Amino acid sequence: MRGISIGRDCAQFWYLLTPCSRCISLPFRVAGLRMVSDAWVVAQSVATILATAFALPMIYLTARQLRLAAEAYKAASEATSGSALGAVSAASRELQWKVIENKSLHPILVPSIGPSGLADSDKQELVRGMLISNYAFIYELKRLGQVPQSVWPAMKVEMVEFFRYGPNIKRWEKLRELYGSDFREFIDTDIRGRPH
């Protein structure tokens, strides 16, 4: 019965160390031993349970706020990417138009061209390529959520009309491998109506 006396000794030792043990105490028995639990220990236990009960909803709300903040950050990031992509697209088109308009700059686009500049057919091929690139930018902006739903059907109709014309299809066939697989699939299936 050595274990019982150790338990009794520990209970008596705890009773002596607890400052309020003589004030208000509630006796109870554990494994046949009479142990004293004071109101302070009970109050601490109740406070711990209440703190846990209040902490759980706060943890849930904090996690929810973090999720909302992450979604807002993602949306802002996509908006920034969309506006940056739009700015790059506009600058690229403007630069290409300036090169096409200035005969002395034509050798930059086609190094084998002579001093006479690009022929009209060459300019048409370059503009077709520029339009395909423009459609690729529009497609990427749509994927980023930067193209309003009300405008998208009109843009798709414009693409459908462009890709119905034979020379434009030939230019697409020459350039298609330069574009991402998602855009190629979009043009081939959604715009041109060709199966995979």
Keywords:
196 residues, 6% strand, mainly alpha, elongated
Secondary-structure topology with pairs:
Layout (H helix, E strand, L loop, with lengths): L1 H16 L7 E6 L2 E6 H63 L4 H4 L10 H24 L8 H11 L3 H10 L5 H11 L5
Antiparallel strand pairs: 1-2
Report the principal-axis shape: elongated
Biggest β-sheet description: 2 strands, antiparallel
* Radius of gyration from CA coordinates: 38 Å
Helical amount: over 70%
First-residue to last-residue Cα separation:
84 Å
- List the secondary-structure elements in sequence, H or E: HEEHHHHHH
**Arithmetic mean of pLDDT:** 76
Number of strands: 2
Q: Structural class, from secondary structure content?
A: mainly alpha
Poorly predicted segments? 1-5, 20-26
What proportion strand?
5-15%
Strand order of the largest sheet: 1-2
Q: Please report the number of helical segments.
A: 7
Notes on the structure:
The structure is a single chain. With 196 residues, this protein is mainly alpha-helical. Among the domains are: 2-39, no CATH class; 102-191, no CATH class. 71% of the residues lie in helices and 6% in strands. The chain is built from seven helices and two strands, in the order αββαααααα. The chain has helices spanning 2-17, 39-101, 106-109, 120-143, 152-162, 166-175, 181-191, and strands spanning 25-30, 33-38. The chain has a two-stranded antiparallel sheet with strand order 1-2. A hairpin with a 2-residue loop joins strand 1 (25-30) and strand 2. Helix 2 (39-101) runs antiparallel to helix 4 (120-143) and helix 4 packs across helix 6 (166-175). Residues 1-5 and 20-26 have low confidence and may be disordered.
